[in-house]
Write a structure and sequence with these properties.
Elements (H helix, E strand, L loop, with lengths): L1 H16 L3 E7 L6 E6 L5 E3 L6 E8 L4 E7 L5 E6 L5 E2 L10 E2 L5 E8 L2 E8 L5 E5 L5 E6 L5 E6 L6 E6 L5 E3 L6 E7 L5 E7 L7 E6 L5 E3 L10 E3 L5 E8 L2 E8 L6 E2 L7 E8 L2
Antiparallel strand pairs: 1-2, 1-24, 2-3, 4-5, 5-6, 6-7, 8-9, 9-10, 10-11, 12-13, 13-14, 14-15, 16-17, 17-18, 18-19, 20-21, 21-22, 22-23
GO biological process, one term: proteolysis
InterPro entries: 6-blade_b-propeller_TolB-like (IPR011042), Peptidase_S9B_N (IPR002469)
Protein name: Dipeptidylpeptidase IV N-terminal domain-containing protein
């Protein structure tokens, strides 16, 4: 009996330590673009925003325990907002920036500024308001994404002729090129352990792409898909076991998930509408 009780107690503790997640995404199923939330199985879908304008680009922030997103009103007035996982508004001061990628600890934000076809990456210190240039090579440098541990960020740059993925180390200021192929890298998502980045890459002239993973220390690349399908925005789950992605299948734009090795594809949205920009939201 003693062993049975201990066993049940251990199962209870393990169950309590498990994490679960929801998926936020963009959709125009109600007529204009809003942000919705669903469970991992795609059974329950509910609107988080009901703005008569457009809402898009949901990004979970650990420090603020909320979803940061972009918004336009009916007069095309742009703002960056913060809300709870229930859709309730929270205060957010973006210091007047039109791009605001908040760090996991909430202490700084990345943003880009353009000069003709060139784009550079800067960092804003939230406490002091100080702005510092980080990536200033004369090229397109965009799509910055924080590593979950907040020590690095990835970005896309065409400084060597085509889009490649780079890693910026905040402690050293080192910029390290992670990919070196003829393919065009586009969408990226960090693994939760900050050791690798999942990304999409397409060959010139092809209407499909594939998903890969690159180790940020060794630059070793692992191919995840090889199926002549098109994968768009991607997001690795908080436990590192799944990838959520936006894809067009049979003429419809939907949200799907698959295992981190590219197997077990599962469709999450089914309403005939546009669905994109999936973002995992930890719920436990």
């Amino acid at each position: 009996m003693k062993h049975l009780v201990l066993g049940l107690a251990m199962l209870y503790l393990l169950a309590g330590c498990q994490t679960s997640s929801s998926l936020a995404y963009l959709t125009n199923r109600t007529g204009n673009f809003d942000i919705f939330l669903t469970d991992e199985a795609g059974k329950d879908h509910r609107a988080l925003t009901t703005n008569p304008g457009w809402d898009w680009s949901p990004q979970w922030n650990k420090a603020r325990k909320g979803i940061i997103y972009n918004s336009n009103d009916t007069l095309k007035k742009f703002s960056i907002r913060l809300m709870t996982v229930d859709g309730n508004p929270l205060p957010l001061d973006t210091d007047g920036l039109e791009e605001y990628i908040l760090s996991p600890d909430g202490k700084s934000a990345l943003y880009t500024e353009s000069d003709s076809s060139l784009r550079y990456i800067y960092r804003l210190d939230i406490a002091s308001g100080e702005r510092n240039p980080l990536v200033t090579v004369k090229a397109y440098n965009g799509r910055p994404r924080w590593s979950p541990n907040g020590q690095m960020f990835s970005f896309i740059s065409d400084r060597d002729g085509n889009n490649e993925i780079y890693r910026y180390d905040l402690a050293s200021g080192e910029e390290l090129r992670l990919t070196s192929t003829a393919a065009r890298e586009k969408y990226t998502s960090w693994a939760p352990d900050s050791r690798s980045i999942v990304y999409t890459a397409s060959e010139e002239g092809l209407e499909y792409n594939d998903v890969y993973r690159v180790d940020v220390q060794t630059q070793a690349i692992t191919r995840i898909t090889d199926d002549q399908k098109l994968y768009e925005e991607i997001c690795v789950s908080p436990d590192g076991k799944k990838i959520a992605f936006h894809a067009q299948r049979n003429g419809q734009h939907h949200i799907f998930t698959m295992s981190i090795d590219g197997t077990e594809e599962r469709q999450i949205t089914r309403v005939e509408a546009y669905h994109g920009e999936p973002e995992w939201i930890p719920t436990k």
